[in-house]
Design brief:
Elements lengths: L3 E4 L4 H12 L5 E4 L7 H10 L4 H4 L19 H10 L8 E4 L2 E4 L18 E2 L5 E3 L8
Parallel strand pairs: 1-2
Antiparallel strand pairs: 1-3, 3-4, 5-6
Length: about 140
């Protein structure tokens, strides 16, 4: 299985998502999008394939979202996209791409929807939430 993750190693959700991918026995291609941001076309494609709007794909917390006035509902998709490309920290994360689809994995366990390989053991998020039990089954 081929998996690509647009990753921020400083983000707990991104780290948990990466760990879930690896718990399925898959070593993904890791793109640290703050160092290597996607192109305009790639970002448009990721957002569209994930079934999101540009507003849903923009990160508000711990970003210049407010300072840039991005909460203004009159701003269009092109303006939001321009802001994300100028300030990649505004791109919500982590986006994960597999042959089964694209997900913005927030929460991290959304990645399970697009992984073909089963989880190989228990998994607990960094905050202590159990996601996969000892038998490899998702805890709901």
């Amino acid at each position: 299985m081929t998996v690509t993750i647009y990753h921020n190693p400083e983000c707990g959700t991104s780290r948990n998502t990466l760990a879930l991918i690896r718990n399925a026995g898959v070593e993904p291609t890791i793109i640290e999008y703050l160092k290597t941001p996607p192109s305009r076309a790639e970002l448009i494609d990721l957002i569209a394939r994930a079934g999101l709007t540009f507003r849903e794909a923009i990160r508000q917390k711990d970003t210049p979202y407010e300072a840039l006035g991005l909460a203004d509902p009159s701003l269009g998709d092109d303006q939001l996209l321009d802001a994300m490309l100028a300030h990649p920290i505004l791109i919500n994360r982590p986006f994960v791409v597999t042959e089964n689809g694209v997900r913005l994995s927030r929460p991290s366990e959304l990645v399970l929807e697009i992984l073909s390989e089963p989880q190989r053991g228990p998994f607990t998020k960094e905050d202590g939430e159990v996601v996969i039990d000892a038998a490899g089954r998702r805890v709901v």
